[in-house]
Amino acid sequence: MQDKLTLMTPGPTPVPEAVLKVMGCHPIGHRSREFEAIIQEISGQLRWLHQTSNDVLIITGSGTAAMEAAIVNTLKSKDRILCGDNGKFGERWVELARAYGLEVEVIRSPWGQPLDSEAFRVVLEADTEKLIKAVILTHSETSTGVINDLKSISKHVNSHGVALSIVDCVTSMGVVNVPIDVWGIDVVCSGSQKGYMMPPGLAFIAMSPRAWQYQENSTLPKFYFNLSFYRKTSIKNSSPFTPAINLYFALKEALTIMRQEGLESIFKRHDENSRAIQAAVKAMGLSLYACDGYRSPSVTAIQTIDFEAELLLSLMRNKLDILLANGQDHLKGRIFRIGHLGFVSNRDILTIVASMESVLHTIRPGKVVLGRGLAAAINELSSRTKD
């Protein structure tokens, strides 16, 4: 049926109708008082979402734009950095840092496994000359469904005393608890098409006072991504360049919806939905790719075992109008991923589980008991509702 697509990818994610509607409004002048009032309101809401009293700046671009801005605004050529890599987006940090001539030491974990926080501690404590200028990692690794122990790693970085912490929170901001000020994180990057419940197009970067000190001495080339421009104009509730005006309308509406729900309720909803998906997957006889205890509330990666992921994805899309995600790189065809972040409710979870169960019944005849996965999801959601 036309216009019936259900989007359950790790991004883009579903968008509330109220957010879509405001995007259809006529643009206004980005130097007008009306737009200044919108920026002022958004700025306060972003600090609330990030749990910080510091700057949260907006760049028209993707989450990767925020990542690049983080690098070029805090570091110098040939600076030594420590970079965590346990998936596609950890790899992106490494590639990005090397593109700017940084000396990158990589702490790797196998895909599907979390980064070892102790490995960070050992390297940082051994750096008695304080040569490491930044520790960079991805919080929620979208490619594998793993969430890394950001709290512990941040603690080790803070103990180092010199290195900045720079974190990709693209699929964790607005999904799980990331108390930036409490954990002492210096730079946090995120994007609009994930937990913010918006279309793609805006990137966000939160900067601590220490990060701004590094910014003053950074020497890597930058112009559009020069955050000092954004900081100066944000004080005046403006922007240095022409912004995506209608996406600001959407952001204002989305943040209002999130504020009404409240942070704790947002975190609880994502946790419940992810656990329901995980319970259903196990009941259907499939295996979760991410290891136990480190599964992201944003996305669930599922191993395909005896069938190709493309077959399931094709049937879900063509027969049921449900879009899921394939694996990336060497995991393509070996796993598929269900995004359950942002504007996703219990009803969506039950719909996806029932639909996936019917498709698996077709492609794995005799190996799937109809209703078992749905019952597991219902039981998980019901037990948490009682709690």
Structure in words:
With 387 residues, this protein is an alpha/beta fold. The chain has 2 domains: 17-260, Type I PLP-dependent aspartate aminotransferase-like (Major domain) (Aspartate Aminotransferase, domain 2, 3-Layer(aba) Sandwich), CATH 3.40.640; 262-386, Aspartate Aminotransferase, domain 1 (Alpha-Beta Complex), CATH 3.90.1150.10. 44% of the residues lie in helices and 16% in strands. The chain is built from 14 helices and 15 strands. The protein has helices spanning 17-23, 33-50, 63-72, 88-99, 117-126, 150-160, 180-183, 209-217, 227-234, 245-261, 263-283, 309-320, 346-363, 372-386, and strands at 6-7, 55-60, 80-85, 103-108, 132-138, 140-141, 146-147, 164-168, 187-191, 202-207, 287-288, 299-303, 322-323, 325-326, 335-339. The strands form 4 sheets. A 7-stranded mixed sheet has the order 2-10-9-8-5-3-4, sandwiched between helices. A 4-stranded antiparallel sheet has the order 11-12-15-14, covered by helices on one side. Strands 1-13 form a two-stranded parallel sheet. Strand 3 (80-85), helix 4 (88-99) and strand 4 (103-108) form a beta-alpha-beta unit. Helix 5 (117-126) packs parallel to helix 6, helix 12 packs across helix 13 and helix 13 packs antiparallel against helix 14. The mean pLDDT is 96.
Summarize this structure as a short list of keywords or feature phrases:
387 residues, seven-stranded mixed beta sheet, alpha/beta, 44% helix, four-stranded antiparallel beta sheet, 15 strands, 14 helices, 2 domains, Aspartate Aminotransferase, domain 1, alanine--glyoxylate transaminase, Aspartate Aminotransferase, domain 2
